[in-house]
Design goal:
Layout lengths: L12 H14 L12 H8 L3 H13 L3 E4 L5 E4 L4 H14 L4 H22 L2 H21 L4 H13 L2 H22 L6 H27 L3 H23 L1
Antiparallel strand pairs: 1-2
Helix pairs in contact: 1-3, 1-4, 4-8, 5-7, 5-8, 5-9, 5-10, 6-7, 6-9, 7-8, 9-10
Length: 246
């Protein structure tokens, strides 16, 4: 059988410039306050036209990564990124790299149960009280609106309780990636709105009940139960998410 090749994705030159500068910011080569080289030098380095370069710089400025100043003392200056802005930047970078939905799902299936198990081993009475209050807020919000932003807060709080900065960061990144995917998905022009609303309604209902089960296991210091409850929750979420993506 003859080999079949995947189509080549055409990428604008300005997008490649943006990606290159993003990478330099992410890896620390460019620090807040650093100036990018003058436009004439960047045009030579990237081997593009002034129009293409300025389109890339405009994208970077619009997204809050650089500030362009006019005049003799002007230029493009790298801005200080707030933590959430840095997460947005990384999420956009990963999306530009063609992040697959199944990769997001498998990462959450691995990471979230381990976080729940870890927290169940170490949670203090004070932290358990805060977790209980968070579940109560989730319940009130769900009963009032049929959904709740406290689902995200629950996941972020569990990550915070590990005391592991990398787990906290990864959780924030995964949440933002999912939000970005959902936003794109829910605005697809041909999506079945009736099916979408039915699936989301079931998801919001299940999320509250499943988060409560996870929290109860954690508060009881039952790590295996907490891990299993979170794994079930993630599988349910994955199934609904896949259906929404069809």
């Amino acid at each position: 059988m003859a080999k079949k090749f995947a189509p080549i994705r055409k990428t604008k030159a300005s997008d490649l410039i943006v990606e290159e500068i993003w990478s330099s910011i992410l890896n620390g080569e460019l620090q807040p306050g650093d100036r990018l080289p003058p436009e004439r030098e960047l045009v030579k380095q990237f081997d593009v036209s002034k129009v293409t370069l300025r389109e890339a710089l405009q994208t970077l400025e619009t997204n809050g990564y650089i500030k362009r100043k006019r005049g003799v003392t002007g230029g493009s200056i790298v801005l200080e990124l707030a933590p959430t802005r840095g997460i947005d930047l990384l999420c956009e970078y990963l999306n530009a790299k063609g992040l697959d939905i199944e990769e997001v799902i498998s990462t959450r299936l691995i990471l979230d149960p381990l976080i729940s198990e870890s927290v169940a081993r170490t949670i203090t009475p004070k932290e358990a009280h805060q977790l209980t209050l968070l579940i109560e807020k989730h319940k009130k919000e769900y009963k009032r609106t049929g959904k709740s932003k406290f689902g995200w807060h629950f996941e972020q709080y569990l990550a915070k309780l590990t005391g592991n900065k990398m787990l906290i960061l990864f959780t924030d990144i995964l949440i933002q990636i999912v939000i970005n995917l959902e936003t794109t998905l829910f605005h697809k022009p041909k999506i079945d709105r009736g099916k979408q609303n039915k699936l989301l309604s079931q998801y919001y209902k299940d999320t509250y009940a499943e988060h409560r089960e996870i929290a109860e296991a954690i508060i009881r210091h039952a790590p295996e139960e907490a891990r299993s409850a979170m794994l079930r929750h993630r599988h349910n979420w994955a199934n609904i998410f896949r259906e929404l993506c069809q």
